[in-house]
Amino acid sequence: MEQLYFEGKVKVLAVSNYDVPEVQELLSYARVKPAFIQNKYDIFTQGGQAPWVPSILQFAQENNIRVQGYCGLNSWPHQLAAVNNAHVKWVAAKYRKTPAQTILRWAFQQGVTMLTRSESTEHQLESLDIFDFTINDLDMQLLNAQITLFSPYFVPWMHDMFRCLFVFLLFFPFSSLKFFSLMSFVLLIGLCWRLCFLVFQLFKKFFLKTKKYQKFRIKLKNLFLKVKQKISYPKIRVLHHFLFALLWFHFLLSFHH
User: Fold this and answer.
1) The domain containing residue 87 runs over which residues?
2) Of the N and C termini of the chain, which has fewer Cβ atoms inside 10 Å?
3) Which helix (H) or strand (E) holds 220?
4) Which residues form a coiled coil (predicted)?
5) What share of the chain is helix, strand, coil (3-state, %, to 5)?
6) Are 12 and 20 a contacting pair, CB within 8 Å?
7) Highest mean pLDDT among 126-135, 151-160, 179-188
8) What is the pLDDT of residues 109-133, one digit of tens each?
């Protein structure tokens, strides 16, 4: 892409779905700084891939990079759409605007450029009618706080909980060896994945210099995107809750015996 930029075939370069560590990594070797960072942006997912990661907006502004938000009005990839949030509706009624206009104005006041998919002329006119009002600081804080109330992601200590469950299953007297083997195998995979991630962090600078790693990373990312297209997020959550319920059922059964 940088070659296309130097040849004058493209005017700017941009990245999508990048968090602060990934952008920092990119800036460490890129010859052309990205002009935009395009991420999912609404009151629940404010630019980061998870609520506990550093603010992509603050980092981008400090490095003179624009943030472009997508899917700010719909629920993708989760269940609750921002326009259906009760606090958004309350703020919208206060300023006599629609929930969609309120969210677009909220993003605009933060310096975020929002992408909207307009299916009709009415939608386009609605999206443009956000420049005749200003959301006050108190209401902005209310909307910003929704990320702490309605997060669709796992909390940071979720991995630690699974590791504790693995240790518990390892030493608890089991009445079903087959079930123990199955669940231990599932948790062991998660633990190995976490260990691989920690090893990668330790030798990150070494891996980044190798071309084979760069090609492997691109292939892995493309594979992940293909799997993500076929398996929706709600299905993954159902599978997670099912496995977790099996763990507790086996615990109660073992305790009974």
Assistant:
1) 2-149
2) C
3) helix 211-230
4) none
5) 60, 5, 35
6) no
7) 126-135
8) 999 999 987 778 888 999 999 999 9
Query: Is 110 in contact with 137 (CB distance < 8 Å)?
Result: no
Query: Is there a single domain that holds both residue 55 and residue 142?
Result: yes
Read off the tokens for 28.
Answer: 């460490």
**Do residues 127 and 217 share a domain?**
no
The residue whose two tokens read 């504790």 is 164
Read off the pLDDT of each residue in 236-253 and give the average, rounded to a whole number: 63
Structure-token pair, residue 113: 């450029």
Name the amino acid, one letter, at 195.
L
Contacts of residue 53, defined as CB under 8 A and 6 or more positions apart, other chains included, come to 19, 20, 21
Count of beta carbons in the 10 Å neighbourhood of residue 230 = 7
Euclidean distance between CA atoms 26 and 81, whole angstroms: 32
Count of structural domains, the chain: 2
Query: Residue 66: enclosing H or E segment and its boundaries?
Result: strand 66-70
Segment (H or E) for 14: strand 14-16
Joined tokens for residue 89: 């509706």
SS3 call for 36: strand
In contact, 101 and 128? CB cutoff 8 Å: no
Q: Which residues pair with 68 in a beta bridge?
A: 38, 113
State which H helix or E strand residue 38 sits in: strand 36-40
> Residue 120 has what DSSP assignment?
S
pTM, two decimals, is 0.60
Q: Compute the residue count for the chain.
A: 257
DSSP-assigned states of every residue in 98-117: -HHHHHHHHHHHTTEEEP--
